[in-house]
Amino acid sequence: MENRKVTVLNNLEELSRAAAAKFVELAQSGIAAKGSFTVALAGGSTPKKLYELLADENESFRAEVDWRKINFFWGDERCVAPDSDESNYRMANESLLKPLNISPSNIHRFKSESDAETAARDYERFLRFFFNEPNDGVPRFDLILLGMGADGHTASLFPNTDVLRETEKLVAAPFVEKFGTHRLTLTPNVINNASNVIFQVAGADKADALREVLDGEIQPETFPSQIVNLSSGKVYWFLDEAAAQHLSSNHKV
Ligand code: 6PG
Is the pTM of this model over 0.85? Predict the structure, then answer.
């Protein structure tokens, strides 16, 4: 697949550094080209190190980006309050946005404290306004950050859920059996319309699913990360050796 680049690093630290360098490269070129940059942040635990590196005053990344030109969104969110330990917004706000002093007007979180469907419709309405896609157009993010679960899910696109087949909505509020709760997520159309996607996947527990996603037969209902196949963008996979251990051809840097 020519629109996909897989890079394997020794560990999470090196993986995060490689992803940070790619983030800076994409942000610099986006801002140079159009004076702005839109990114949907990933949740979970893997991206925390990336966020810390980008915001760290003792690292080179922070000084290389005009952060004022970036608008921050989320690819998915749990249906919890923004100050919950479970909140993807809280994790990114504490590790990236607050340390960078990002203006609140550039931070666009899900209103995850509302009921799920209301929060999804509200976020979709805002996306249509912000990206000036009032009718049935699909917003085009400059970059969407994603992780992958041990079951092959990404964002909140979980195996065998209806949202995998969603073709109209930009944002959905699927009920996720395994958690007994709703989640909030960008739909496949929005993710696949992005200019760039960065996946960060680390840990041996992801190795089996990753082999299926990257080297197995195409079965996105079972391994939803396979849905990510950009129409005209590039997908960058940053993996650690543990997660990549079953891949057919090692792309170690
Ligand atoms: C979430 C994420 C989810 C995450 C994967 C990997 O809300 O949890 O959006 O898709 O990226 O579950 O999570 P870890 O990085 O914690 O392994």
Answer: yes
